[in-house]
Amino acid sequence: MSTAHEDTDTPARGPAAMRAAVSWFLDQRTLPRHETLKLWDQDLAGFLRQLIPAIEALAASLPLGDVSVRVASVAVRERERGCTSRKRRACTARRSA
After folding, report:
1. What are the pLDDT digits (tens) for 25-52?
2. What is the DSSP string of the chain?
């Protein structure tokens, strides 16, 4: 399996495709070439752009004290904070894409 970018020039969609892509990537014994990593960065950022609103919607439907809601909220805030503190311009471009 390889990234969707390499095969069709379209990012993979859906949770199963995301899991499969990430599993393939993590199973590699050596680090892929730079260009491949750039494509993976784009794919994974796209996956996060898809997942974050879904996580927020699911969390909003559960009680505030629920442990999974708190964990999900922290993860989303960390992702947003990481974008604003490290790569403000790059993250802004990704969000608008």
Report:
1. 889 888 888 888 888 888 888 888 888 8
2. ---HHHHHSS---SHHHHHHHHHHHHH-SSPPPHHHHHHHHHHHHHHHHHHHHHHHHHHHTS-TT-HHHHHHHHHHHHHHHHHHHH-HHHHHHHHH-
